[in-house]
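This part of the workshop introduces the protein records we will be handling. Getting from the letters to the tokens is the skill we practise here. An example says more than a description, so a record of this kind follows:
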Amino acid sequence: MTKRKRILALICGMLGCLCFGGGDWLMIYGDTGIHADAVNWLTNGVSEIPLWRQDLAMALAFPGIILYGIALFSVQNYITDEKRRKIYHYLNAFGLTPWLALHLFYIMILVLFAQLNSGGAEMAEAMRVCSELYSALSWVVVASEAFMLPVFVYWFYLQIRGFTAFPKPFAFTNVLIFFGLLKGATMLMPDNAFRLAFTNGLMSESMIIWFAIILIFEIRREKKDEKRN
């Protein structure tokens, strides 16, 4: 893959983050004054979100996953060992589908929550029903993350062991490290709609930082190569 194609692929990844992250914000940005005890993202404000926002959030996930895939598969070109490049490739392939599954899982619960609320059900009853549905199917979240996260753990391993074109310290620019840092930042935020939506979009927000760092590395390397020539 040429340098120009790698740069374009990384830009695609950042656009994918905006699609997925935008959907994460659309589906859940609402007042947090009243919320369910067990599932704190089932709030009074979320129950009032119009269905077009949920539709748009789901629709954005499809171009989002394609753009994610373009960037994530292009990253394998930075792996210097052929065998390890293939392992990354297959981990990535298995890890992309659960992004859509998880997105759909949450949207279905949120749509049901909104429909119950608009249909005249008591807020407490709507929260109870949707909390129980989430509890019964919470294994979907665990299963999805079990497929999604190994590729990022493996990427950390590759970088820290020196099997990529990046210096070893770049291992600490891993998506999961950014996720942890941003998650810590949410603990300092007041309980409001911004915090709820920001927390829901943490993975996309972490990914866009990661793609941006790789993009900067690629552009700087390209400029150095031009000077040498």
